[in-house]
Amino acid sequence: MFAFDDEQFLDGYRRRFGPLRDELAQAVRFLIGRIEQDASFNQNPVHRHQIAYCLATFKWETAHTLRPIDEFGDDARFERLYGPNTRVGKMLGNTRAGDGARFHGRGYVQLTGRANYERAGKILGIDLINHPDEAKKPEVAYAIAMEGMKKGWFTGKKLDSYFKPGQLPNYEDARRIINGQDKAQTIADIARRFDELLVNSLH
Q1: What is the mean pLDDT of the chain?
Q2: Of 6, 25, 66, 169, which is most buried, counting CB atoms within 10 Å of its CB?
């Protein structure tokens, strides 16, 4: 398991990304604490690269707040995008009127669709079908994001496909874990900065 110097991490964050408001600092502390408690990560470079990429993804997907958020939009927009009669909605397992809005994106990586909520809920032992807003709680959102990225819930691609022992981290193509190649280079650059932060703040 990893152990970090929180203050050194926060100082490094300020140098690489800019000022840290109290709310953002608290969000960073929460995530570092969760990572330190995450027994699935060992202190090796591959896992460090994976963590750096996850943090970069969270930063991008949460509009740089590093807090679980709702997808931008209203119920009408979500129904247009994800309603049960749409192609995307069918792919997401939305079967009932209102599913597009009910199961819109939430969390650090925007869990979306009835099928994904059901799968995440079963694995975590939480009723996300009847209580979808639970997916926005930081502890739940962290578990969903990490499990989803490790196991390929979102697109079928997973962290192990892009971060392997003896190979350079493939930060650019790792975007396929979440969303094709949208903003792949931008997020890769953020991940490299996070990797520097992690190295410099390791105990």
Answers
A1: 95
A2: 66
Residue matched to tokens 């079963």: 122
Place of tokens 């110097």: 5
Query: Which tokens hold the place of 22?
Result: 């109290």
| pLDDT one-digit tens code per residue, 84-127 | 999 999 999 999 999 999 999 999 999 999 999 999 999 999 99
Domain ranges of the chain: 6-68+149-201, 77-136
Residues 6+ apart with CB under 8 A from 49: 163, 169, 171, 191, 195
Give the C-alpha distances (Å, rounded to integers) separating 106 from 12, 61, 97, 112, 200: 28, 10, 19, 7, 31
Q: Where do we find the tokens 């953002």?
A: 24
Checking phi first, is residue 189 left (phi over 0); if not, alpha (psi -120 to 50) or beta? alpha
* Architecture category of domain 77-136 in CATH: 2-Layer Sandwich (3.30)
